[in-house]
Amino acid sequence: MHKSLMNNLPFLKQSKAGIKFFDFTDILGIRAGTIVKNDSHGFHDYRALIKEQAQASRSTQDGQKIPQIRLIQLTQKHTNLVIAAESDIQKPADGLFSAQSGHVLLIKTADCFPVFLTDGQTSVLVHIGWRGLFGGIIKSLFNTVTNLRVNLARAVVGPGIEACCFAVGSEVALLFPVRYRIFRAGKYNVDLPAIIVDELAAFGIKSITRCKTCTACRPELLNSYRREGRKVKQMYSYMLAGG
Fold first, then answer.
1. Coil, strand or helix: which one is 227?
2. Residue ranges per domain, the chain?
3. Which of 32, 72, 170, 230 has a beta carbon 3.0–4.6 Å from 239's, enabling a disulfide?
4. Phi, psi of 98 (to 5 degrees)
């Protein structure tokens, strides 16, 4: 990987197997990241990397590794629902939470935003696009995850489509407050990550980090539904639960 690319993207790392990923562990204090575009690797390789990272984080006091690592993946449908990892994950939802040691939360994105939230015990991972955002998924998150210690929580808004590329018709733009709209060349652009950050802050989250890397602008690194269409491959975001 070119050094310039690594320097320009401080979250970007590469595993020994050559898998590129954004690592948010240092910010959140818990293993979390987004596996980005890796044309020579597939989901089997990603699972191995995620389990390896999770296993490295889960040690007992005598240094023995905890064997039970469970990857939990949602059935995403652009809803405003956030559910416990112990729930029926076959039902459509777009957010997961858990405080169970060994649980690894998993979502897919390709323009929508992975949003990571943790208080050091409870972890929340949410898939947020404009439909979920308008539908109130962030409010749903805080109404549902009642044991989250907001005063201790940290959040990361991962890579998604930024305002520079999120052009929409007026029927979508007018769903959101005017301060998040940009009128350009006869079309509206909407700043979704700014809305996410402001809504998280309104619920009391003080530590919020934006990745600020646009999926549509970076074809060499990120997958984008806007750019690639229905055949797009999706990126996987993961987050360890249980502190």
1. helix
2. 3-237
3. 32
4. -165, 150
Instruction: Show Cβ contacts of residue 239 under 8 Å, excluding neighbours closer than 6 positions.
Output: 28, 30, 31, 32, 104, 105, 116, 118, 123, 124, 125
Distance CA 235, CA 94 (A): 15
Predicted confidence band of residue 242 (pLDDT cuts 50, 70, 90): confident
| Percent of the chain predicted with pLDDT > 90 | 78
Banded pLDDT at 4 (limits 50, 70, 90): very low
Instruction: Provide the phi-psi class of 29: left if phi over 0, else alpha when psi is between -120 and 50, else beta.
Output: left
The whole-model pTM stands at 0.92
Q: 3-237 domain in CATH 3.60.140.10?
A: yes
Separation of first and last alpha carbons in the chain: 32
Token pair listed for 148: 């989250």
Q: 174-228, pLDDT tens digit by residue? A: 999 999 999 987 889 999 999 999 999 999 999 999 999 999 999 999 999 999 9
Question: What distance in Å separates the CA atoms of residue 124 and residue 84, rounded to the nearest whole number?
Answer: 9
CA distances from 188 to 12, 102, 110, 166 (A): 31, 43, 21, 8
Q: What span, in angstroms and rounded, lies between the C-alpha atoms of 49 and 35?
A: 9
Compute CA distances 91 → 20, 94, 130, 186, whole Å.
31, 10, 21, 39
